[in-house]
């Protein structure tokens, strides 16, 4: 089968599957030229069984990604055996730190029938339940590493990957965070600022201090060990971003 035929078949299958799953799902096809996106996606596939074994022998050359509004994602990939159909696996969310996945059992993927309508029944009847349980546990774990803020105080918590996370208790604070690049995970309530650009991260922290202070909301910095900064960070002296970022492989 020609590559064009294969890609068209995968994209069409994913479109139908997305429309047949419970809740609302959208489908997006990643073509072979999207090498960086495919590599990043492969690193987030939440599977240590069937799909992981397949990827170990056949690196990801194309994929279809199904996304749900709450951040859940499924990836559909080619199946390299004598049977028709595809493989589908859960995807670990961007927003959670590596520590959140510890002690969480991988939801793993499954093989799908060549018929997308039957495939949707397989996903809905088995995979989604396991995925939702694993997501809920990981998100709960992530929240456990973050000290809850108060209406008049936002507590910012360093994460092991260099990002900064917080769970604001005030919609005014949430609006300020979103406006300055924090990404909200709607299911856990966590707002996260990435740490891959420490200069941009430090600039953001300097900017949100005065904005929150003008609303009567102070800020404090907490380290992963659970020790809070000695005092709330004033608008004129915001916390300084870390100089380095530690990247660790996620336990999948």
Secondary structure layout:
Elements: H1 3-20, E1 26-30, H2 35-44, H3 50-57, E2 63-67, E3 73-78, E4 86-91, E5 110-112, H4 116-144, E6 153-158, E7 164-166, H5 171-179, E8 183-185, E9 190-193, H6 198-214, E10 218-222
Parallel strand pairs: 6-10
Antiparallel strand pairs: 1-2, 2-3, 3-4, 4-5, 6-7, 7-9, 8-9
Helix pairs in contact: 1-4
Please describe what this structure looks like.
It is a single chain. The two termini are 33 Å apart. The chain has a 5-stranded antiparallel β-sheet with strand order 1-2-3-4-5, with helices on both faces. Strands 8-9-7-6-10 form a 5-stranded mixed β-sheet, covered by helices on one side. The longest helix is centred in the middle third of the chain and has 29 residues, at 116-144. It is built from 6 helices and 10 strands; from the N terminus they run αβααββββαββαββαβ. Strand 8 and strand 9 (190-193) form a beta hairpin. With 252 residues, the protein is an alpha+beta fold.
């Amino acid at each position: 089968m020609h590559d064009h035929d294969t890609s068209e078949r995968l994209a069409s299958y994913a479109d139908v599957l997305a429309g047949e799953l419970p809740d609302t799902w959208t489908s997006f096809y990643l073509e072979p030229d999207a090498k960086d996106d495919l590599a990043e996606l492969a690193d987030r596939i939440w599977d240590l069984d069937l799909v992981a074994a397949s990827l170990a022998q056949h690196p990801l050359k194309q994929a279809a990604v199904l996304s749900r509004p709450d951040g859940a994602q499924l990836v559909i990939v080619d199946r390299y055996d004598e049977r028709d159909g595809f493989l589908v696996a859960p995807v670990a969310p961007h927003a959670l730190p590596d520590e959140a996945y510890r002690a969480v059992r991988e939801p793993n993927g499954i093989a799908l029938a060549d018929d997308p309508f039957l495939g949707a029944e397989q996903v809905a009847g088995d995979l989604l339940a396991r995925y939702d349980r694993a997501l809920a546990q990981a998100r709960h774990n992530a929240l456990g590493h973050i000290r809850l803020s108060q209406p008049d105080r936002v507590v910012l918590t360093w994460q092991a990957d260099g990002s900064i996370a917080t769970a604001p208790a005030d919609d005014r604070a949430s609006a300020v965070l979103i406006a300055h690049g924090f990404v909200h995970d709607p299911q856990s309530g966590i707002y996260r600022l990435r740490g891959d650009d420490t200069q941009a991260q430090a600039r953001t922290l300097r900017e949100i201090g005065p904005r929150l202070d003008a609303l009567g909301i102070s800020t404090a910095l907490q380290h992963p060990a659970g020790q809070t900064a000695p005092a709330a960070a004033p608008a004129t002296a915001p916390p300084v971003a870390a100089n380095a970022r530690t990247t660790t492989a996620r336990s999948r």
